[in-house]
Amino acid sequence: MSYDVDKPDEQWRAELTPAEYAVLRQAATEPAFTGEYTDTKAKGVYSCRACGAELFTSTTKFESHCGWPSFYDPKDSEAVELIQDRSHGMVRTEVRCARCGSHLGHVFEGEGYPTPTDQRYCINSISLRLTTDEA
Ligand SMILES: [Zn+2]
């Protein structure tokens, strides 16, 4: 799999903070209820913190009470890449940025949230950067 933005590991390490690198490039998960966007309700666009690709918007963000920013749909279906993840003894669907391959979080389905898709894109705050709409 090759991505439009394809940098050597050393470059990612230099460009990202250690915490950003651990999540985006090593698929770590930030602790629940600690991310800066968990409860954010500001209107705007959430972009990939590694490459700047637009991934999610505030219009599909909802309160899941799970401790991470949750969206019921990406901005564009092509903006994210979904990969089966069998780590930690579970079968989950990993969500990556389709432009640079960075880890964003996981998507869960059929949990019964009252959203149009019944999907929950559970995304690490540290993988995202919010650009708020100018009034
Ligand atoms: Zn990216």
From TrEMBL:
It holds the Pfam family SelR. It catalyses: L-methionyl-[protein] + [thioredoxin]-disulfide + H2O = L-methionyl-(R)-S-oxide-[protein] + [thioredoxin]-dithiol. It comes from the Bacteria. PROSITE patterns: MSRB (PS51790). Its EC number is 1.8.4.12. Residues 9-133 form the MsrB domain. It is an enzyme of class 1 (oxidoreductase). Keywords: Oxidoreductase. The keyword Oxidoreductase applies. PANTHER family: METHIONINE SULFOXIDE REDUCTASE, METHIONINE-R-SULFOXIDE REDUCTASE B1. NCBIfam families: peptide-methionine (R)-S-oxide reductase MsrB (TIGR00357). This is peptide-methionine (R)-S-oxide reductase. The lineage of its organism: Bacteria, Bacillati, Actinomycetota, Actinomycetes, Kitasatosporales.
